[in-house]
Amino acid sequence: MSRRSRAAVARSAGGDRTLTTVLGLVLVAASVLALLVGFGVFGSFRAQRPVIDPLIVEWVSTHATAARWIAIGIGVVLFLIGLWWTLRSLRPEPRPDVSLSELPGERLTVEHAAISDAVRHDAELIDGVSRARARLVGTPQKPALRLSLTLVEGTDVRDVWADLDGRVLARAREAFAVSALPTAVRLELDATSAPTPARVQ
Amino acid sequence: MRLLLRVLAPLLGLLLAVVGLAVVVETVTLWVSPASSPLIVPWPTWLTAAEGLTWQSGGVRAAAIIVGVIGLFVLILGLVARRHDVFLADPVPEVTVTTSPRSIARAVGHEVRAHDEVVSASVVASAKKVTVKAATLDPAAEVRDTVRDVVETTLARLPLARRPRVAVSVTTTKGVK
Considering the domain boundaries, does residue A104 fall inside one? Predict the structure, then answer.
């Protein structure tokens, strides 16, 4: 299992998870801190101080310009992080075209749709595969293949593998003129026993 | 949970962006033309409302608890939204094969239900454990071993990267055979 084939299994949610976790930690920390202050853990005198602390109010009114710049700075940082996060998680996963040759005058790229259609068609010809989906992920220079195969009930997974590697992937590797094409295969087992599922009356 | 993360993550990002933008807009308005402040967010009202409160006030504690609960939810969402793929042994280098826990459960379920002695069965599967609950009309102890064999054979046919543990429980139900 190579790192690239493993990365092709599904779109990574790592960024979203990290940001969500950090945001959750910040909220929990703020809440715990406020409660601790309120229950007098940092001294009973501090617990009785107003939330809008006169010391801070005084500092803000004496250093009005600095306070405003700090507020604007915090606002800009929050805005940029929020915008970057939103755009990042809304962006669709890229479908790279594959460049076979970058030589001037001989540039050759294969469109994503052409490759994925060809691979999907090949995969659907395998015995026991009722439905196949294929797409490329990664960058044009380092593409990886993601294949989803739906297998008919009772199919031996090992037979499917042999066909997949011997026919489908071999052809794809040949077409790309590479010795190895990182591939992630997702199997749905026993989805249906027949093209039209039998109904019990 | 992954779907929820997929939906909530852009919304949380958008919320951060809106809060940041509001802070900038209100600060600049207060600075440039104090007469038209507040522009959108009624922050002076909030300020007067918070004026008499101390850290001990019930309102402050309630707000802290609400923020804490929301934070805990967001934190847990970020931590548990992982993938549950079941990895199969790699047929060749550079190829990774996975399947879903649901697929494993379906495959095992088909085999168990196809058995004559089993009346009904439910299967829950993960990469580490397959739990089968079956009902039968025969003595439970005998059927349990048969069901366990069926499950083990089914799993042996799948080239899983690691063999999950199998837990089988069989109950005898009343009925006519």
Answer: yes
A199 within some domain:
no
* Residue of A33, A29, A28, A37 whose CA lies nearest to B54: A37
Choose the mutation target among B70, B74, B90, B106 for the interface with A, i.e. most A CBs under 10 Å. B74
Q: How close A111 comes to chain B (CA, Å)?
A: 22
pTM of the model: 0.78
Average pLDDT of B152-174?
A: 88
Neighbours of B61 (CB within 10 A): 16
| pLDDT band at residue A200 using 50, 70 and 90 as cut-offs | low
CA nearest neighbour of A135 among A108, A110, A117, A160: A117
Q: Which residue of B has its CA nearest to A47?
A: B55
Inter-chain CB proximity B98 and A38 less than 8 Å: no
Q: What is the pLDDT of residues B70-88, one digit of tens each?
A: 999 999 999 998 888 899 8
Q: Identify residue A47 by its one-letter amino acid code.
A: A
Q: What's the CATH class of domain B97-172? A: alpha beta
Is A37 within a domain? yes
Q: Identify the domain containing residue A175 by its residue range.
A: 98-188
Question: Is A152 found in the same domain as A77?
Answer: no
A196 found inside a domain:
no
- Count CB atoms within 10 A of the CB of residue A74: 15
Looking up tokens 């909220």 gives A27
Domain count, chain A: 2
> Tens digit of pLDDT for each residue in A153-178?
878 888 888 888 888 888 888 877 77
Residue ranges, comma separated, of all CATH 3.30.300.20 domains in chain B are 97-172
Q: Which amino acid is at B9?
A: A
Judge if A17 and A82 occupy the same domain: yes
Q: In this complex, do B24 and A82 lie within 8 Å of one another by their Cβ atoms?
A: no
Note whether A9 and A186 are within 8 A (CB).
yes
Question: Token pair for residue A31?
Answer: 């809440």
Q: Which of residues 117-156 of B touch A (CB under 8 A)?
A: none
H/E segment holding residue B78: helix B58-80
Does one domain contain both A36 and A109? Answer: no
Strand partners, B165: B129
